[in-house]
Write a structure and sequence with these properties.
single chain, alpha/beta, Alkaline Phosphatase, subunit A, seven-stranded mixed β-sheet, binds zinc ion
Length: 273
């Protein structure tokens, strides 16, 4: 039986921040791994996801071609499709095209404007939507309506963990109440201002990202409840990390630093009973 696939990408979420955050719901899904992104910036990192490649484990003593082969064969377990070879993805190297050919519906809900639907990322999606707000996981959840018998690939880019690490929608009646995560971080300098951050501010931003991860975790059951009884494979990861002052850097993008490439990764199946 084919499964739904929920690929949840927490934008900019650092591995060590996710590891330190309270995430009881993610913990139930699978074991958190430290992996490596192919890219330090949002657009190319998402392009790689849509090639069907998840963050890698930086393995040694193995040829890259064999790593890719193994990675592509993982989609057997993730989708429920019996036999998958690397050649099934060629020549386009597109996960949504591969899935579409096998009867999947493809839906993308993205938060970061750089991933907007005018880019080529929206190829082969039945629905590809840029959210109005960059931090509206709860609004995203409201737009997701799985249909029994219609395997669907959900490609979700979450912006709560992106600067300024703010969470909205926490006061909505049907959502769990999240303590201490309201409001934005207005006292921080804007990236454009040229002003630099103090150590305290970096610490405070890191903690804010950690709270954003915990908030995402609290919303997770609301999303997963919609898939109750439906075979569903869930992957939670990040597109790249974030620097909070290490090496004199802030953020991500044109930065060569291990903490920008280090990302969290976990996956697991939802119980169908
Ligand atoms: Zn990003």
């Amino acid at each position: 039986m084919l499964k739904n696939i929920l690929l949840i990408i927490m934008d900019s979420a650092r591995y060590d921040v996710v590891a330190a955050a309270k995430t009881p719901n993610m913990d139930q899904l699978g074991t958190l791994e430290r992996r490596w992104s192919y890219s330090s910036w949002t657009f190319p990192a998402h392009h790689v996801f849509l090639m069907g490649l998840m963050p890698h484990k930086s393995p040694t003593r193995i040829h890259a071609s064999n790593v890719y082969r193994q990675e592509y064969s993982q989609w057997q377990q993730r989708t429920g499709i019996k036999e998958i070879n690397f050649s099934d993805f060629t020549p386009q190297l597109s996960l949504p095209l591969f899935l579409q050919k096998r009867g999947f519906r493809n839906e993308a809900l993205v938060s970061m404007p750089v991933l907007n639907p005018a880019t080529n990322l929206n190829q082969y999606f039945h629905r590809y939507l840029l959210m109005e707000k960059h931090n509206d996981f709860s609004g995203m959840i409201e737009m997701i309506h799985p249909v029994p018998g219609q395997p669907t690939f959900y490609f979700l880019n979450l912006g709560e963990t992106h600067y300024p690490y703010s969470i909205q929608g926490a006061d909505e009646e049907d959502m769990p109440h999240l303590h201490g995560v309201h409001g934005t971080l207005k006292h921080f300098p804007e990236p454009e201002s040229g002003e630099w951050f103090s150590d305290d501010q970096f610490q405070s931003m890191k903690q804010a990202q950690q709270r954003a991860v915990a908030a995402i975790d609290q919303y997770l059951p609301v999303l997963l409840h919609k898939f109750k009884g439906l075979p569903t494979h869930v992957i939670i990861t990040a597109d790249h990390g974030e620097l909070f002052g290490e090496g004199g850097c802030f953020g991500h993008g044109p930065i060569q630093h291990p903490k920008v490439f280090e990302v969290p990764f976990l996956e697991g199946e939802l119980p169908t009973e």
